[in-house]
């Protein structure tokens, strides 16, 4: 029994040495490990559409932080609905540029300290079809009026 | 076809304004030279309305959607007056409809105005090159070529400007593949505008042929 006890002790000692040696090895030995950390952050979703309301799908998005308008912090493509999500990490005016084949727009989104969009921000969604029709009608009538005015002057 | 704000670098926008300014001066000088410059104003106003409304009508050419430009037609009917008509039309489109942009107004004017003026000159060539043809054939041929040429050249300038101005931070291949699709989408439009010009010229020939003579 005594012999078995000492054999067990020496075995455990060896195991301990191996474990200490493995733990003290540089990072290479444990590089297979991966970690995922989770925390809550306020994300912002943008949606890009054409005038017709059709989504600007697979368009290139560039997001610029308030302190650097030259280098984009986030880049990517919009999804099939023209949507793109990013996390503004600092308060200030974030610039979002969406473009595709020479079309696109730039939006400046004011972000407050908690990561929320400033309450003063208005999302300009452009004109509705009815508004566009009224504008087109007004301009056409303006041009027809001009034509009639100069036409009459010409006849006199 | 309109280039909105934020697509082109600032020097290109400034150059666009400089060229557009010079062209406006030349066009107004040429208009002043005519004996009664106000006679053409009603025609120019009506064509400016057509140009303004034309860009609001989108034509679905899968996988993209294009819209009428009508700049070749304006060049045919208006000659030098096409320039101020296009400039005013573009300004109203940018301010009221959000088509194009205010910073890119100069570039857009050059892109659509100069092809319009060239199309007008091309149409006038029928007096020399189309002499041997029957008058109706000559009118049809030259109006088609001029109408198609106006929008075709504008489309080429558009693609050249956009390709030249792709920032290095963008994924070039994605942008280029979408540009290719848009370029192919413009081919039916070129034919359509050519046909449109022929129809209008034949209509004017029947109802008011003096409108075609300058």
TrEMBL record, chain A:
The keyword Cytoplasm does not apply. It comes from the Bacteria. One of its GO terms (molecular function) is carboxypeptidase activity. SUPFAM superfamilies: Cna protein B-type domain (SSF49478). Keywords: Carboxypeptidase, Hydrolase, Membrane, Protease, Transmembrane, Transmembrane helix. Pfam families: CarboxypepD_reg. The chain crosses the membrane at residues 12-34, 129-150. This is Carboxypeptidase regulatory-like domain-containing protein. The lineage of its organism: Bacteria, Bacillati, Cyanobacteriota, Cyanophyceae, Leptolyngbyales.
From TrEMBL, chain B:
GO terms for cellular component: plasma membrane. InterPro entries: CbiM/NikMN. Its main location: membrane. It is a multi-pass membrane protein. The chain crosses the membrane at residues 6-28, 40-61, 73-97, 141-166, 178-205. It is found in: Cell membrane. It holds the Pfam family CbiM. Keywords: Cell membrane, Membrane, Transmembrane, Transmembrane helix, Transport. One of its GO terms (biological process) is transition metal ion transport. NCBIfam families: PRK06265.2-1 (NF004906). This is Cobalt transporter CbiM. It comes from Leptolyngbya iicbica LK. The gene is cbiM.
